Amino acid sequence: MSLQDHLKIASSELMKAADLAKQEINSLRNDESNLEKKISQDISRLTQQIQHREQEVQANDDPTLRSQGQTAINYLVRQVADAKNQLNQEKQLIQDAIRERENIASTLNQQAKSIG
User: Fold this and answer.
1) pTM of the full structure
2) Pair 105, 21: CB distance under 8 Å
3) What are phi and psi for residue 62, nearest 5 degrees?
Protein backbone atom coordinates (compact mmCIF):
# COMPACT_ATOMS: atom_id res chain seq x y z
CA MET A 1 0.00 0.00 0.00
CA SER A 2 1.40 3.36 -0.98
CA LEU A 3 1.81 6.41 1.19
CA GLN A 4 -0.96 8.10 -0.80
CA ASP A 5 -3.34 5.23 0.04
CA HIS A 6 -2.52 5.53 3.75
CA LEU A 7 -3.15 9.27 3.63
CA LYS A 8 -6.54 8.75 1.95
CA ILE A 9 -7.51 6.22 4.60
CA ALA A 10 -6.38 8.56 7.38
CA SER A 11 -8.32 11.42 5.82
CA SER A 12 -11.41 9.26 5.54
CA GLU A 13 -11.15 8.19 9.18
CA LEU A 14 -10.78 11.81 10.28
CA MET A 15 -13.91 12.72 8.31
CA LYS A 16 -15.79 9.85 9.98
CA ALA A 17 -14.68 11.09 13.39
CA ALA A 18 -15.84 14.62 12.49
CA ASP A 19 -19.22 13.21 11.45
CA LEU A 20 -19.51 11.41 14.80
CA ALA A 21 -18.78 14.67 16.59
CA LYS A 22 -21.56 16.32 14.56
CA GLN A 23 -23.94 13.53 15.55
CA GLU A 24 -23.05 14.15 19.20
CA ILE A 25 -23.81 17.84 18.66
CA ASN A 26 -27.26 16.99 17.33
CA SER A 27 -27.86 14.66 20.24
CA LEU A 28 -26.84 17.37 22.71
CA ARG A 29 -29.19 19.85 21.04
CA ASN A 30 -32.02 17.32 21.36
CA ASP A 31 -31.13 16.83 25.02
CA GLU A 32 -31.23 20.59 25.54
CA SER A 33 -34.63 20.85 23.88
CA ASN A 34 -36.03 17.97 25.96
CA LEU A 35 -34.63 19.50 29.13
CA GLU A 36 -36.25 22.85 28.34
CA LYS A 37 -39.60 21.17 27.71
CA LYS A 38 -39.45 19.15 30.93
CA ILE A 39 -38.45 22.05 33.14
CA SER A 40 -40.97 24.36 31.46
CA GLN A 41 -43.68 21.82 32.24
CA ASP A 42 -42.48 21.63 35.84
CA ILE A 43 -42.52 25.42 36.14
CA SER A 44 -45.99 25.57 34.62
CA ARG A 45 -47.25 22.99 37.11
CA LEU A 46 -45.70 24.90 40.01
CA THR A 47 -47.16 28.17 38.75
CA GLN A 48 -50.62 26.60 38.68
CA GLN A 49 -50.11 25.40 42.25
CA ILE A 50 -49.08 28.92 43.27
CA GLN A 51 -52.22 30.38 41.72
CA HIS A 52 -54.38 27.76 43.43
CA ARG A 53 -52.74 28.48 46.80
CA GLU A 54 -53.16 32.23 46.31
CA GLN A 55 -56.88 31.72 45.70
CA GLU A 56 -57.11 29.59 48.84
CA VAL A 57 -55.31 32.24 50.89
CA GLN A 58 -57.57 35.01 49.61
CA ALA A 59 -60.70 32.98 50.31
CA ASN A 60 -59.71 32.09 53.86
CA ASP A 61 -60.38 34.27 56.91
CA ASP A 62 -58.40 32.19 59.39
CA PRO A 63 -55.02 33.94 60.00
CA THR A 64 -53.27 30.67 60.79
CA LEU A 65 -54.44 29.02 57.60
CA ARG A 66 -53.58 32.16 55.62
CA SER A 67 -50.08 32.10 57.09
CA GLN A 68 -49.67 28.42 56.25
CA GLY A 69 -50.90 29.08 52.74
CA GLN A 70 -48.45 31.95 52.30
CA THR A 71 -45.64 29.72 53.54
CA ALA A 72 -46.61 27.12 50.95
CA ILE A 73 -46.68 29.81 48.25
CA ASN A 74 -43.20 31.02 49.23
CA TYR A 75 -41.93 27.44 49.05
CA LEU A 76 -43.42 26.99 45.56
CA VAL A 77 -41.92 30.30 44.41
CA ARG A 78 -38.50 29.06 45.58
CA GLN A 79 -39.04 25.83 43.67
CA VAL A 80 -39.78 27.83 40.50
CA ALA A 81 -36.60 29.86 40.99
CA ASP A 82 -34.60 26.68 41.62
CA ALA A 83 -36.00 25.07 38.47
CA LYS A 84 -35.05 28.13 36.41
CA ASN A 85 -31.55 28.11 37.88
CA GLN A 86 -31.21 24.40 37.19
CA LEU A 87 -32.30 24.95 33.59
CA ASN A 88 -29.77 27.74 33.10
CA GLN A 89 -26.94 25.70 34.62
CA GLU A 90 -27.70 22.58 32.62
CA LYS A 91 -28.15 24.57 29.40
CA GLN A 92 -24.75 26.17 30.01
CA LEU A 93 -23.15 22.74 30.44
CA ILE A 94 -24.79 21.51 27.25
CA GLN A 95 -23.74 24.63 25.34
CA ASP A 96 -20.17 24.15 26.56
CA ALA A 97 -20.23 20.54 25.38
CA ILE A 98 -21.64 21.60 22.01
CA ARG A 99 -18.88 24.20 21.54
CA GLU A 100 -16.28 21.59 22.45
CA ARG A 101 -17.69 19.11 19.91
CA GLU A 102 -17.89 21.84 17.26
CA ASN A 103 -14.21 22.64 17.82
CA ILE A 104 -13.34 18.95 17.61
CA ALA A 105 -15.34 18.51 14.39
CA SER A 106 -13.72 21.58 12.86
CA THR A 107 -10.22 20.44 13.80
CA LEU A 108 -10.83 16.95 12.43
CA ASN A 109 -12.20 18.35 9.16
CA GLN A 110 -9.21 20.65 8.79
CA GLN A 111 -6.80 17.80 9.44
CA ALA A 112 -8.62 15.58 6.95
CA LYS A 113 -8.45 18.27 4.28
CA SER A 114 -4.79 19.00 4.94
CA ILE A 115 -3.73 15.39 4.42
CA GLY A 116 -6.36 14.40 1.86
Assistant:
1) 0.81
2) yes
3) -75, 120
Q: CB under 8 Å to 66, separation ≥6 — which residues?
A: 57, 60
> What is the structure's pLDDT at 42?
97
Q: Are 108 and 17 in contact (CB under 8 A)?
A: yes
pLDDT at 116 exceeding the cut of 80: no
DSSP 61: -
CB contact at 8 A, 107 and 70: no
N residues, the chain: 116
Amino acid identity, residue 94? I
* Measured distance CA(95)–CA(59) in Å, rounded: 45
Closest CA relative to residue 21, chosen from 115, 97, 111: 97
pLDDT in tens, 45-93: 999 999 999 999 999 899 999 999 999 999 999 999 999 999 999 999 9
